[in-house]
Amino acid sequence: MKKKILALATCICLAVSLAGCGGKEESRETSGGQEESADKEAATLNIAYQYGVAYAPLSIVKEQGLIEKAYEEAAGKKVTVTWNQMSSGADINTGISAGSIDAGFMGAAPAITGVTKGVGYKIFTNLSGQEHGLMTNDENIQSFEDLIGSSNQIALVNIGSIQHIMLAMALENAGYDPHALDANIVAMAHPDGMAALESGNASCHLTSNPYIFKERQEENLHEIMDVTNAWGIDDTFIVGVASETMHDNDPELYQALCGAIEEAVDFINGNPEEAAKITCEFDGNSEEEELEYIQKSKYSIETSHLFELASFMARTDFIETAPESYEDLVFDNVSGD
User: Fold this and answer.
1) Pairing, β 204-208 against β 154-156
2) List of residues 6+ apart from 280 with CB closer than 8 A
3) Which domain holds residue 289?
4) pTM of the predicted protein model
5) In total, how many domains does the chain have?
6) In angstroms, rounded to a whole number, what is the distance separating the alpha carbons of residues 15 and 20?
7) CA-to-CA distance for 186 and 260, rounded, in angstroms?
8) CA-to-CA dists, residue 275 to 53, 105, 288, angstroms
9) 104-156 pLDDT, tens per residue?
């Protein structure tokens, strides 16, 4: 009796094992009725991005399915693209380091930090340049001199963000220690920083398009001009980074990503009115506002002064390891300086 039970159990285990193996190689029906093997299953691409019109080309990529189209054309396979909106480049760095994010869009400064720290990515494209400004609700604050040594809080995206580095550059340009206002910084996403400035919960807000233009329209706010010219619209602001794993292991997906960004940038530059109709829904602006903000932006896949920014960060101790060349920061397809 025991031998029969043992034999029956063995058969059941074998059947379950075979079923499990078969599940890994199961086929599925395509729309044409043909079987598609497991190696034709959809790839996945997890992308992280942040807030503002600086990221407008990504709305074009997302709405028009440009990555999906390019990958299917190149590889004959589908890709599922997941878009994750995050508050800072530091959050994106954490996601890529953990393997939950494949590509991200962030300020150039945290991207440089990530590359030099060995997070596991490089810059694969430029995205945009934007105008920045430092706004305050305190009539007694007119310059850096009124802020240094005070308890006034400066809202900006994060410690080590591109806004933080811009502030440091402006301080040095004015003859101060680049770190003189580090203790005044409070980390907030752009929308939260604007709300804190307007409510009086923060004295200052260093921000970019569209928030800087909205804040300039408020009668009870004024601008501290020291920051405005530290890093201009023609300088690299937002870049895209891609994991070295994706770049090395799935070149077709990497090229689809690069091609999609370039196509979206060309579209937004050549058809700003049509682009505004798409991107306004993602940015929460009217079409008229969105068009104005797009036209005040510079969208390009070519970097500008990226290595200069990295050199400043190294010289002023924002990063521990100085890159030796521009090529240390970017993949081979990227052009600029």
Assistant:
1) parallel
2) 286, 287, 289, 290
3) 41-130+235-328
4) 0.84
5) 2
6) 9
7) 35
8) 11, 19, 11
9) 999 999 999 999 999 999 999 999 999 999 999 999 999 999 999 999 999 99
User: What are the tokens at 90?
Assistant: 């530091």
The domain spanning residue 92 has which CATH number? 3.40.190.10
pLDDT tens-digit series, residues 18-53: 333 333 333 333 333 333 444 456 799 999 998 889
Distance between CA atoms of 254 and 250, rounded to whole angstroms? 6
Query: Looking at the domain assignment, is residue 141 inside a domain?
Result: yes
Query: Is 239 inside any structural domain?
Result: yes
Contacts of 288 (CB under 8 A, 6+ apart): none
Question: Which among 68, 101, 108, 67 has a CA at the least distance from the CA of 86?
Answer: 101
Displacement of CA 213 from its chain's centroid (Å): 21
Domain end residue (candidates: 170, 193, 227): 227
Buried b (16+ CB within 10 A) or exposed e, 22-56: eeeeeeeeeeeeeeeeeeeeebebbbbbbbbbbbb
For 43-120, strand residue ranges (E) read 43-49, 79-85, 103-107
- Among 210, 227, 244, identify where a domain stops: 227
